[in-house]
Write a structure and sequence with these properties.
Strand content: 5-15%
Number of domains: 2
Number of helices: 5
Order of helices and strands: HHHHEEEEH
Number of strands: 4
Largest sheet: 4 strands, antiparallel
Structural class: alpha+beta
Radius of gyration: 18 Å
């Protein structure tokens, strides 16, 4: 079993972001990380299973921004440390190993941009009430 601080570090999330992601009170997470108390085993098990960084069947790639990405070649999907997964159709066999991380990082940067644009559209719609039909 891994230590909670190690698990959080693998995500590149702040304590606050990690606590929000799993619904843990921030003060509780801080106590766990400072070894003032320990999370129940079932909580650690849940968090470990939720984070791709601790699954052995995934290849790990580190982006230029320090973000960790994961390749599940058998199921043709890539993931980030936050648990977002994107499926792809093309077989990965034959792709130059040194390029895979670059392609995954570029895909996720576009994904994050699309999510930001979608959220902006929703915010705009709430304000402007414009129908796009």
């Amino acid at each position: 079993m891994h230590h909670i601080k190690e698990l959080r570090a693998s995500t590149n999330l702040s304590q606050s972001e990690f606590a929000d992601m799993f619904g843990i009170p921030l003060s509780t997470l801080r106590k766990w990380e400072q070894n003032q108390s320990a999370p129940p085993a079932y909580v650690m098990n849940f968090i470990e299973k939720s984070l791709p960084s601790f699954k052995k069947e995934y290849s790990m790639y580190k982006g230029k921004n320090g973000q960790l990405y994961y390749l599940d070649a058998a199921n043709r999907k890539v993931g980030d440390a936050l648990g977002n997964w994107i499926s792809f159709n093309e077989d990965i066999i034959g792709v130059m190993e040194e390029n895979i991380g670059i392609y995954i990082e570029r895909l996720f940067l576009k994904y994050y941009q699309a999510i930001d644009e979608f959220n902006d559209d929703l915010k705009f719609d709430k304000i402007e009430k414009i129908s796009w039909r």
